[in-house]
């Protein structure tokens, strides 16, 4: 199994999935701490699991590995197999960010049923892509995501609770190196989803390492010097800078390089 590289817990906190550096996945019952399954379906002997996530419908999980491929699996079925939905031969998937159930506002009719299509934002070496995985794979958005330095990973964050005045404006945020892009998600109905450019930032004094929403209108960025930056998106200004070096952040470089398996990864990884 190797070391644990990623964990995900289902909506009611009864199941935990753990991905390992040697490509295995274990499913655990959190009520009695019993291991229910060990999954060794990955065909690449030298792959490490990079991330594993429960999807918004609560029945499927999605994962990616160091081959750059993406797989989904129905965890309700005892003998279900991993199904490849994106092959690394088409451009390695570096980062996955599914829209989770808890990120969907329950009081907005425009999002009714959206948890059933399992939206997934993903970044490859050169592209940003949004797809839905259920009942079949549908591509909703794609754009280029260039970087002059490939050592900087793409970053992705969802925010469906953003308000501008009295209007809800669900957002998809992504970036790489020193560029941050914010797109508005428009849902005419569940099957038709589009993304419209809204804001773009360039950080002149630092490179991006982490990206997340702290509040509905506040973006939190960690740079490569381990400083945190709180950004007000509406006025497009940095509100505060925080030194995080004392936190002792943990990095995933060894997993992306698949060092435990001899480093058999592409140059993109």
From TrEMBL:
SUPFAM superfamilies: WD40 repeat-like
Coiled coil residues, start to end: none
Keywords: WD repeat
Top-level taxon of the source organism: Eukaryota
WD repeats: 1-38
Name of a matching Pfam family: Beta-prop_VPS8
UniProt xrefs under Gene3D superfamilies: YVTN repeat-like/Quinoprotein amine dehydrogenase
Residue intervals passing through the bilayer: none
InterPro entries reported for this sequence: WD40/YVTN_repeat-like_dom_sf, WD40_repeat_dom_sf, WD40_rpt
Name of the protein: Uncharacterized protein
Organism: Euroglyphus maynei (Mayne's house dust mite)
């Amino acid at each position: 199994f190797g070391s644990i590289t990623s964990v995900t817990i289902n909506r009611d906190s009864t199941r935990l999935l753990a991905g390992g550096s040697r490509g295995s996945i274990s499913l655990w019952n959190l009520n009695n701490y019993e291991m229910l399954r060990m999954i060794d379906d990955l065909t690449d002997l030298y792959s490490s699991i990079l991330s594993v996530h429960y999807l918004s419908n609560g029945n499927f999980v999605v994962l990616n590995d160091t081959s750059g491929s993406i797989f989904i699996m129905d965890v309700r079925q005892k003998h279900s197999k991993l199904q490849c939905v994106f092959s690394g031969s088409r451009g390695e998937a570096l980062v996955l960010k599914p829209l989770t159930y808890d990120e969907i506002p329950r009081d907005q009719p425009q999002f009714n049923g959206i948890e059933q299509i399992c939206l997934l934002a993903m970044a490859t070496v050169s592209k940003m892509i949004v797809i839905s995985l259920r009942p079949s794979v549908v591509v909703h958005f794609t754009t280029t995501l260039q970087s002059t330095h490939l050592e900087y990973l793409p970053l992705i964050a969802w925010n469906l609770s953003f308000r501008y005045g009295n209007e809800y404006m669900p957002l998809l945020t992504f970036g790489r190196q020193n560029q941050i892009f914010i797109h508005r998600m428009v849902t005419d109905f569940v099957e038709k989803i589009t993304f419209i450019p809204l804001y773009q930032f360039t950080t002149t004094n630092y490179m991006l390492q982490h990206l997340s929403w702290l509040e509905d209108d506040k973006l939190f960025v960690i740079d490569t010097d381990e400083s945190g930056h709180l950004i007000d998106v509406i006025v497009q200004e940095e509100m505060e800078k925080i030194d995080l070096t004392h936190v002792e952040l943990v990095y995933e470089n060894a997993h992306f390089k698949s060092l435990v398996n001899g480093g058999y990864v592409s140059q993109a990884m």
